[in-house]
Amino acid sequence: MSLGILCSGQGGQGPGMLDLLRREPAAQAVMDRATAIMGKDPRALVAGPEAEMQRNAVAQPLLCAVQAATWVALHPLLPPVRAVAGYSLGELSAYQVAGALDVDELIWLANGRAEAMDRADPAPGGLLAVRGLDRSRLEAVCRDCGADIAIENGADRFVVGGRRTVLALAERAVLALGAAVTPLPVTVASHTRLMAPAAAEFGPVLAASGLRAPPLPVLAGIDGTPVYTRERAVSSLTRQMTEAVAWAACLDGLNEMGCTVLLETGPGNALARMAAERHPDLPVRSVSDFRSLSAAAAWVERQLG
């Protein structure tokens, strides 16, 4: 019986994302450190306009700060972790959970990643969730419209990325084919060819950073295989900026590595819901489902027996 950790990506940020952390001194200490690095207090950002939290330059370091604060407070309450996987931006947080990144450097890298992505393409971009088409039909739509498949969540569940004008064309095309679509609250075309300048800028920053070989295996977002070396960690984190995230493969990889219980760090529970859909026999919850971090830890203990 082993625990796997899921680190959330962008989209779950909102006004209540710090509620579980208000009475956690260790988490508040992380918030103080994040304030010094970001130049803005995450607590003030969460209390401010929700639209500000959706801006890429704010969202990425903010989410990494919140996840780091959650993990620092939660980790002492949990049994040993078998493996970690992170969704999109969450892959960066996964290395902090695995012990390969210090909190300060995680937030600093998230800030640099967001800035590089914002500079990569001057035109407004975004992501569109598409459900109900298989990969071959969706790839044909993407070729016709100039979009890219950014994330594969399942056999007929994908996220498409591109410039806003291109996504409008893709949305009309997939709706005509009977698919369901959901625009995502992301302002850049993550995991697409448009991010090539960002990868070229951020890759050397990662290579020069204090990122270490992960003491726990982190599943590479691009293929769902475990990462054990620093060199592969740098490569995977760089490549995922321009290549599709194989999230379904990550979930399968956690299962194959013997993770019998999964816990998502939040905010939100999107990853927990996807994992429950793909592996219905696997107990999975998000920290956000609970009223306290101790309640989340107690649930894990019950599941592991």
TrEMBL record:
<dbReference type="GO" id="GO:0016746">
    <property type="term" value="F:acyltransferase activity"/>
</dbReference>
<protein>
    <submittedName>
        <fullName>Acyltransferase domain-containing protein</fullName>
    </submittedName>
</protein>
<keyword id="KW-0808">Transferase</keyword>
<feature type="domain" description="Malonyl-CoA:ACP transacylase (MAT)">
    <location>
        <begin position="6"/>
        <end position="303"/>
    </location>
</feature>
<dbReference type="InterPro" id="IPR050858">
    <property type="entry name" value="Mal-CoA-ACP_Trans/PKS_FabD"/>
</dbReference>
<dbReference type="InterPro" id="IPR014043">
    <property type="entry name" value="Acyl_transferase_dom"/>
</dbReference>
<dbReference type="InterPro" id="IPR016035">
    <property type="entry name" value="Acyl_Trfase/lysoPLipase"/>
</dbReference>
<dbReference type="Pfam" id="PF00698">
    <property type="entry name" value="Acyl_transf_1"/>
</dbReference>
<dbReference type="InterPro" id="IPR016036">
    <property type="entry name" value="Malonyl_transacylase_ACP-bd"/>
</dbReference>
<keyword id="KW-0012">Acyltransferase</keyword>
<dbReference type="InterPro" id="IPR001227">
    <property type="entry name" value="Ac_transferase_dom_sf"/>
</dbReference>
